[in-house]
Design brief:
Elements (H helix, E strand, L loop, with lengths): L2 H6 L12 H14 L4 E8 L5 E7 L9 E6 L7 H18 L8 H9 L1 E5 L4 H10 L18 E4 L10 E5 L5 E3 L7 E3 L9 E5 L1 E4 L44 H12 L3 E9 L3 E4 L11 H18 L3 E3 H4 L12 H8 L3 E7 L2 H4 L10 H4 L3 H14 L5 E9 L3 E8 L10 H19 L5 E12 L2 E10 L20 E8 L2 E2 L6 E5 L26 E9 L2 E9 L3 E9 L1
Length: 575
């Protein structure tokens, strides 16, 4: 069996289906057991329902600290494709080591991928994903409600008609704000002035807590699962009355806290891919200001990644602030990529998987977020037709009469958004996985890479020897990764240590030498690198030298690096 067959034979089907927690666990364990030289598997935490937050470490010599790319998926419970794409990237990293020709990537890029290390958290909300997969219930992130205030009337998700799913309910009502589509009778549309009845009120499938027998509460997208993990991270966190979904305090949830603690313990993370659904778009910093407020060296790097991303996936890349605010001048607070970019100094961004809008042929609005906010009646009918013709009618579902314990007769059904709306249809999942993996492996190849160029002994006479060490950064990125991250207190410059065996340092207190940060060779886009009349390099800022003087024969062990890029070692024989 070839290496490629060995990797693919272990697949549990994540490129064509959405895995439950047990199957996802089996997939990770299969890789760990089959490829111990390339894979580590740890649980970085447990959920309140007892599920592990599994984290893969991938790469040659996976325990060796070096620049590491992070991928996470499924922090929002319904966005299951993120897990599949994260697993596909992990599988392709294994193939890069075991059967590189199968990936059809340029040799220099593959070399960089094999030099890097990867952390993969395929499912940040296993409790939420399990709930969505097994019941269809809408869960934003985690299926729990630990609020202390219980006096308010609220919707509680429940399977009213006993079909095993939790979708929506409708009731005929003269004040109803929805009507049935003439072209697709099962599809409900927002009511317009010239519509004739019947008119419907639409509610979540479930019951009402603290019901007074008359007042029907307004549903919320975080109604009985009030915490959104992507509002619970510490950078720019604000409380729930200012940011819905924020949680009780920053990293109050075990899932987000586990991610924060791991990230802080691993300053070598340089790239961070946060996988969401849906839309078909990459969302980059800044989230709290226009591009004019962004470090311009950072912006040049993003412009380069934008070109690669669109070429590999067909998805555009947009500024979170300029094209993805749901309300003008009201940035989101406490989201993961802000934490990863501003506090951890990483190339952090979101991808909203599944370009449904493009598949429906909808024109691109001026601001990408308007796709979600401004869908017309005709757009929804296009979606219903696509669902019927290309998605086996998985989204628009028939209505069934049921008896509600509080509201009387209702109809249950309507929309099941899991497969085709929130996530790609099973038949298209492999296509999405392949494109996203190819794109992110290119980003991962940007890693800084510190190497020893020379480590030598130069005799000086009288029993003295000069030890000379030269190190290079042969990677695209500088050792501080981002210009904006250079100021972070933990983003230490490189240093070199010399320790002697037999011989001795002439200056016993000079065992450590400062090397400083090393620039990478990459320039990004729009920084003048291709200005034909002024093609110049920035000296030799990608390398550094340190020297020590030792007395007598022996051996000198050298170690150079930093917490950001890990360490390289060399040994010099003296005498």
């Amino acid at each position: 069996m070839s290496s490629r067959d060995a990797v693919l034979s272990l697949s549990k089907g994540f490129r064509s289906s959405y895995l439950d927690h047990d199957t996802l666990t089996a997939q990770l364990e299969a890789w760990r057991d089959a490829f111990p030289a390339l894979v580590r598997l740890v649980s970085i935490g447990k959920t309140p329902e007892g599920r592990d937050l599994w984290l893969l470490t991938l790469g040659a010599d996976p325990d060796r600290v070096r620049p590491t790319a992070w991928i996470d998926g499924n922090m929002h419970a319904s966005e299951l494709a993120g897990s599949s794409v994260a697993l596909a990237i992990a599988e392709d990293v294994l193939r890069a080591h075991l059967e590189p020709a199968a990936l059809d990537l340029p040799a220099p890029l593959l070399e960089r991928v094999r030099a890097a290390r990867f952390f993969v958290l395929p499912r940040m909300s296993p409790d939420g994903a399990e709930c969505v997969l097994k019941t269809g219930r809408y869960v934003r992130s985690v299926p729990r409600d630990e609020r202390q205030d219980r006096g308010a009337s609220r919707w509680r998700s429940a399977d009213v008609d006993g079909d095993g799913l939790t979708l929506v309910m409708r009731q005929v009502d003269p004040t109803g704000d929805y009507v049935a589509s003439a072209a697709h009778p099962e599809l409900l549309l927002a009511r317009e002035l010239d519509d004739a009845g019947p008119f419907y009120r639409v509610h979540p499938e479930g019951t009402i807590d603290a019901w007074d027998g008359f007042t029907i509460p307004v549903p919320s997208f975080v109604g009985d699962n009030p915490v959104d993990l992507n509002r619970n991270f510490p950078w720019s966190w604000t409380p729930t009355h200012e940011q819905i979904g924020a949680g009780a305090f920053p990293a109050s949830e075990p899932e987000s806290r586990a991610v924060v603690e791991w990230a802080i313990a691993h300053p070598e993370i340089y790239a961070w891919l946060n996988l969401h659904c849906f839309g078909g778009v990459f969302i980059r910093p800044l989230g709290h200001g226009p591009d004019s407020k962004m470090d311009q060296d950072d912006l040049g790097l993003w412009k380069q990644i934008e070109r690669w991303a669109e070429a590999d996936t067909g998805y555009p890349m947009v500024s979170g602030y300029e094209e993805f605010l749901y309300a003008p001048d009201q940035p989101l607070h406490g989201d993961l990529t802000d934490f990863a970019y501003h506090q951890r100094g990483t190339i952090a961004y979101v991808v909203e998987l599944w370009d449904l809008f493009k598949r429906l042929g909808l024109p691109r609005p001026k601001k990408f977020v308007d796709y979600y906010m401004n869908l017309s009646r005709g757009d929804l009918e296009k979606l219903a037709a696509w669902d019927r013709d290309h998605n086996h009618s998985r989204i628009v579902r028939p209505w069934r009469t049921a008896q509600h314990p509080q509201l009387g007769e209702v109809e249950v059904g309507g929309v099941d958004p899991r497969f085709g709306l929130w996530n790609p249809p099973f038949e298209l999942l492999a296509e999405v996985c392949a494109a996203q993996s190819r794109c992110f492996l290119r980003v991962a190849a940007l890693a800084p890479q510190v190497n020893v160029r020379t480590a030598r002994a130069v005799p000086l006479g009288d029993g003295l020897t000069r030890i000379e060490l030269v190190v290079d950064n042969t990677g695209y990125l500088p050792t501080y990764v981002l210009a904006s991250a250079k100021k972070l207190e933990w983003n230490e410059p490189l240093y070199a240590d010399a320790s002697c065996d037999g011989c001795a340092l002439v200056d016993a207190g000079a065992g450590r030498a400062k090397l400083g940060h090393l620039e990478g060779w990459g320039r990004g886009v729009g920084t003048g690198a291709n200005e034909l009349a002024h093609q110049r390099s920035a000296g030799n800022t990608s390398c550094a030298r340190a020297t020590w003087t030792v007395r007598g024969p022996g051996r000198v062990r050298l170690r150079a690096g930093s917490c950001r890029v890990g360490f390289v070692e060399a040994t010099v024989e003296v005498g």
